[in-house]
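Class, look over these structure tokens:
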Amino acid sequence: MRVGVVATSYPRRPGDAAGGFVAGHVAYLRAAGADVEVVAAGHGLPAPARLFDAGGAPDALEAARAAGGGTHLAALAAAAGFSARMLATVAWRARRWDACAAHWLAPSAVAAALAPRRLPLVAVAHGGDVHLLARAGLLAPALALLVARDARLVFVSAELRARALAALPAWLAARAATRAVVQSMGVDERRAARIVAARAARGPRVAAAPATLAILARLVPVKAVDTALAALPLVRTPARLVVAGDGPARPALAAQARALGARVVMTGWLDADRRDELLARADVVLVPSAPLPDGRSEGTPLAALEALAAGVPVVASATGGLPALAGHGATLVPPRDPAALAAAIDAALARPPPPPATALGWPTVGAALDAHWRRDRARDREGSYAPAPRAAQPTLRQWSSRPAASGDPDRHSEQLPDRRGW
């Protein structure tokens, strides 16, 4: 099977954490025997720096809208240009695909749905895409297009699914509901196992040493990192907070953190290996997200899933897709409540860490996506979207999304000729 994966965010260099869950999906499909071609920013498509750096495209567009004037127009032009290039690229490359997986409804899933060749399509909504489409009045048309294309819809949280369906007329919502499931993305089980081993080698925290609290997130309003900074002075257990990430909210957060002195460390972006090192030494991972006045809320952050899979205690706000993590051992607190967050941190530090969550890896998540993607495909002339799983790893002849300069033995897809018969 030849599967196209379309996304806005995908790792552009070794260790890049951006779009890591998309890379995980690609790795899962390749391990199942599929030939995978990636179309994403920096992979066959130029990536406008102001659109994809720092907080990501949804937050960049929101910030530009707030700034107004030429800034807003420039951001809209960059987004429109990128979307047009994605549409043209997907239309061209889809000729040789047997199926397509699109991460983010816009522009990825819309581009796949508009491709001349009709393919089995799974469209994954992550949160910011639904919010932007709703703000622009385009959520209902986008979902109508995907339903007309018989796409399988995946939402990373139940709240996100409910919000999307509520934007549709009753008759269309009923049709979309039959095609829509809730499924968070998966984690790399091998990386999780290495973190578990590193934590075991480190041993239990020494009582006299300050605990390490960690936040791994984009520094944007929906992540509500300011709530964690406000909670830190209320934590009775000696602790320091490591904030790993970057984004437009960093200057304001840094100003707030200065009053806490050495108890707060802001590292900026960390590559994948350094993220793993932080998870290996973290005593608690915090996810203090909060809904915004404009209706945007958190999805199901990969950092929280990675922490739970590695056996790191997680304290998260009960918002968006985070309540579902309680079933995997996370502690939930009300959003925007520093006192409740501090109390939950002290409680988490006082008890033994939970065992690693075992149902969050890509083999489990990928199988769930496969089952949804294949549903009712038996009557389709083109067959199901993905190959039957097999143990053998794919060979180096398949398409790769990594640049040749990365040192990866696979070559970039654009450097390979079309295969005979494609």
